Amino acid sequence: MRRSHDHLTPAGMSVCTNCGQVKKPHSVCEACGHYKGKSVLPAKQSTSNSEFTTEA
Ligand SMILES: [Zn+2]
Question: How many A from CA of 18 to the centre of ligand 1?
Fold first, then answer.
């Protein structure tokens, strides 16, 4: 995962309010699956990957 310019938002891009990753405006963050402060990540992949726990 690259974290080059955390404080730089390219024109026409938005920043995820959850993880701070640059994302497309009005679209779900591809990094964490959040949109407008809500987790809208499709719960399809039910793997045993429990890295996405609530760590407040
Ligand atoms: Zn995010």
Answer: 5
